[in-house]
C-alpha cells in the first residue's frame, strides 16, 4: 500500500520471488478504507510509509490498523529510515522496517523477520 504504480509492480514481483502471492495492492496509503479485506485475506501487509502525507499521519494510521487488525504481519518501507530494522522494538506499529529502495533479497529478509517478530508477539 502506498507505492506508486511502477513500484507496486516491482514489489509484487519481489513478493512472488519470496514465495508469496500478492493479494491486493493500492497506490494510496489508505489503510482504513480496506481494513476488512486486509484482515481476512492477507498474512502480510507491506506499507510505504512515504505514501502518507506525513510520517506522523502514517504512524497513527498504523497504530490504529494494528489495534483493529492484529493478525497480519506488517512491514513498512521508507526512504526516511536510516537502516533496515528487523527487530521487534516497533511492535506497536510494525513487525519490521526496510529502507527504500527495496531489493528482492532485502524484501525476503524483511518478510521473514516480520513473520518471526509477529509470531513472537502473538
Q: Quickly count the helices.
A: 4
Mean pLDDT: 86
The secondary-structure class comes to: alpha/beta
| Biggest sheet record | 3 strands, parallel
Q: Please count the beta strands (DSSP E, at least 2 residues each).
A: 3
Q: Tell me the Rg in angstroms.
A: 13 Å
Strand order of the largest sheet: 1-2-3
Low-confidence stretches: none
Helix content: 40-55%
- First CA to last CA: what distance? 24 Å
Q: What percentage of amino acids are in beta strands?
A: 5-15%
**H/E series:** HHEHEEH
Q: Assign an overall shape.
A: globular
Structure description:
With 122 residues, this protein is of the alpha/beta class. The chain is built from four helices and three strands. Helix 1 crosses helix 4 (104-121). It is globular and about 30 Å long.
Keywords:
globular, 3-stranded parallel sheet, single chain, alpha/beta, 122 residues
Short description:
This protein has 122 residues and is α/β, with parallel strands linked by helices.
List the helices and strands and how they pair.
Elements: H1 5-17, H2 35-41, E1 44-48, H3 55-68, E2 73-78, E3 96-99, H4 104-121
Parallel strand pairs: 1-2, 2-3
Helix pairs in contact: 1-4
